Prior knowledge:
The structure is a single chain. By secondary structure, this protein is α/β, with parallel strands linked by helices. The chain has helices spanning 17-26, 45-54, 73-81, 109-124, 173-182, 200-209, 230-243, 259-271, 311-327, 341-344; strands spanning 6-11, 33-35, 38-43, 60-69, 94-102, 128-129, 136-142, 145-151, 191-193, 252-256, 278-282, 296-299, 332-337, 351-358, 361-367. Strand 5, helix 4 (109-124) and strand 6 (128-129) form a beta-alpha-beta unit. Helix 2 crosses helix 7. 43% of the residues are buried. Bound molecules: S-adenosylmethionine (SAM). Residues 167, 169-171, 195, 197-198, 200, 255-258, 261, 284-286, 300-302, 316 line the site of S-adenosylmethionine.
Amino acid sequence: xxxxxxxxxxxxxxxxxxxxxxxxxxxxxxxxxxxxxxxxxxxxxxxxxxxxxxxxxxxxxxxxxxxxxxxxxxxxxxxxxxxxxxxxxxxxxxxxxxxxxxxxxxxxxxxxxxxxxxxxxxxxxxxxxxxxxxxxxxxxxxxxxxxxxxxxxxxxxxxxxxxxxxxxxxxxxxxxxxxxxxxxxxxxxxxxxxxxxxxxxxxxxxxxxxxxxxxxxxxxxxxxxxxxxxxxxxxxxxxxxxxxxxxxxxxxxxxxxxxxxxxxxxxxxxxxxxxxxxxxxxxxxxxxxxxxxxxxxxxxxxxxxxxxxxxxxxxxxxxxxxxxxxxxxxxxxxxxxxxxxxxxxxxxxxxxxxxxxxxxxxxxxxxxx
Length: 369
Ligand SMILES: C[S@@+](CC[C@H](N)C(=O)[O-])C[C@H]1O[C@@H](n2cnc3c(N)ncnc32)[C@H](O)[C@@H]1O
């Protein structure tokens, strides 16, 4: 008889579900199911560890612990008590509980959290709530059905550990990686990030090109579970190390006209162990020359949330249009910014590949036809 499989949910920024599903398939995980805001999949601990270690576009991985129906607090308590808390929470430890309630008789999220904590404490003995605890329980009440999940990731997955230096308006690491995957980047072609800021595209591209696991150097919430299997984790880490490439197949160039951005990108590249692989250049993108016949030209230009829509910004987008259409005419070209009149100023009929929210601002991944 086959072992019962757990159900997992890889959370993504809405828009990246299909990309994350393709990543899961590439990890050998069968039949991932894209839903709104993430992808459900089945597996054992191995698949859970693999997802945390390798997923580039996801923000966290949840374990579906169970679903209970309740219209009053005593029923909720009784049904929550039956869930397998001992797999995830150590007696005498603490956890944090996050609750959302929609269209349900039980609408007081604070009392739902208290009821859940009381059920865990009754099941395991002494357990306290602590907002800094490594174990997070998510309760989602929808039409009186309470879905219970446990976070296996801890810190969000975009925190790879390399971004020590920042610039204004950086792109999240998992969104940058998701855009590169959506564009079919696999490290076999040259890549230029024409406005690199803190270096996110260049670093994510290099991690992908060298087949480095984005989660190899960090800690995860599942490491604090009673049934954590350090031997299995070490085995997956060693397999990942053996699969790493030692050199890039095609060059990666990161450019910015601001010396402070280049300094930040340099520090982040060093922290990521990529200073030797990625070339940095402090120059305006208007001076870019195409030295290879084809490749991927990408950038996340400033879009005026801070600096206002000045004539200088319009001029910058016009220059961008010239570089993309004339100098890099044979290259795949993409920009990530709000789909606004600034984009029209490029003169290029960009096509939208993805629409998503970055730091609360709606942006699009736009590709040159
Ligand atoms: C939105 S930020 C990019 C953020 C980056 N994606 C990250 O994750 O850190 C835009 C960048 O464009 C740079 N920039 C503006 N005008 C430029 C130009 N003419 N040439 C090159 N870089 C430019 C800015 O210095 C800034 O670092």
